[in-house]
Amino acid sequence: MAKKIITISREFGSGGRSIGRAVAERLGYKFYDQEIIMHVAEESGLSKEIVEKYDEYATHKNSFLYSIAVNAGGDAYGGLSFANQVQIAQSNVIKALAEEGNCVIVGRGADYILRDREDCLHVFIRADIKSRAERVVKMYGETDKKIEDRLKDKDTKRKVFYRSFTMRDWGLCENYDISLDSAKIGMDKCVDIIVDIAKA
Fold this sequence. Notes:
Elements: E1 5-10, H1 16-27, E2 30-32, H2 35-44, H3 48-54, H4 64-70, H5 82-100, E3 103-106, H6 110-113, E4 120-126, H7 129-140, H8 147-166, E5 178-181, H9 182-185, H10 187-199
Parallel strand pairs: 1-3, 1-4, 2-3, 4-5
Helix pairs in contact: 1-10, 2-3, 2-5, 3-5
C-alpha cells in the first residue's frame, strides 16, 4: 500500500528537514514544516509569535498532563496554557492536512497524532554528534553557546515536548516504521529509501 503521508521526526542537525523536503519534491507531495505555524495560529486564534514560542518545545510545567492536573475540567482551550493550546491546535491542523493527503510533515508529534492511519510512513532521522555539530555550524553559524550544548538543548526540548504530548519516548525505534542514520548512509540515500518505501 502506497503511503500518502510521511512524518519525519529528527534529531537537531541530522538533516531531517532537508530530507523531508527532498522526499516531498521527489514524490510530488506537499511539504509542511514551518508552514504549520500559520495554520496553527489560524486554528487557535493565537498570534504567530505565541505559536512560534511554543512550537515543538515544552517544559515540565507546560506539559499537557501538567496543565490538566492544574486546570482540571477546562474546555478545549479555556484554562489551558498557551503551550497546550498550541499542542491541541497542532493536532487538529495535522489531522486536517493528512485528510487532504499526499504530504510530508516534519516534527510536532505528527507520528503520534496520525498513528492510527494505515496510509502513513513514520520516519526518524538521526546522526552522530560530530556530524550534527558540523551541519549546524555550516547551516546556522557559530554562537556564544557551545555547539554540543546547542544540540543537547534542542533535542532535550523536543524530547520533553514529545513526552508531554504523547506519553511516549521520542526517538524510540518502536514508535516509528523506520529509523535512518543520515551520517552513515548519507542524506541522498535516506531520501531514496523513504521514497522507495512510500511507493511500495
